[in-house]
Amino acid sequence: MKILALSLIALSLAACSQATPDAETSKTPSMPGAYMIVSGNGYAAADLAPYAATLPPIYKKYGGYYVAFSTDYTVLEGSPDAQAILISAWPNADAAKAFWDSPEYRESIKLRDGIGKFDVVIVPAIPAPPGQR
After folding, report:
1. Which of 49, 45, 48, 53 has the alpha carbon at shortest distance from 71?
2. How many domains does the chain have?
3. Tens of pLDDT along 65-88?
């Protein structure tokens, strides 16, 4: 069951990573302007599948896409206890915050209420050096 639930979440994430934003909302820059980093713990993957399934159209609308997701990551220093770490890219921090505050996401997050503990941060990207953009 755990493998099936993780597969459903991975399929949802793959759909998000292939989505492109609507022309009227924003355009994905060649380099992301911000990243949203989520670490989660204390949840059953099957319980998150309905929540994860709602995300692709919301990400698309606000210009976000996933760049990394893993339950099997390497800790080089410290002792993080996350079951999974997820990183998404956004045109800028305002777009990531607009996603987070959107009515669509506020409805979706209700499906995650009471399931695990999640830490979510938005980190501005460092601009690429000239010539690497």
Report:
1. 45
2. 1
3. 999 999 999 989 998 789 999 999
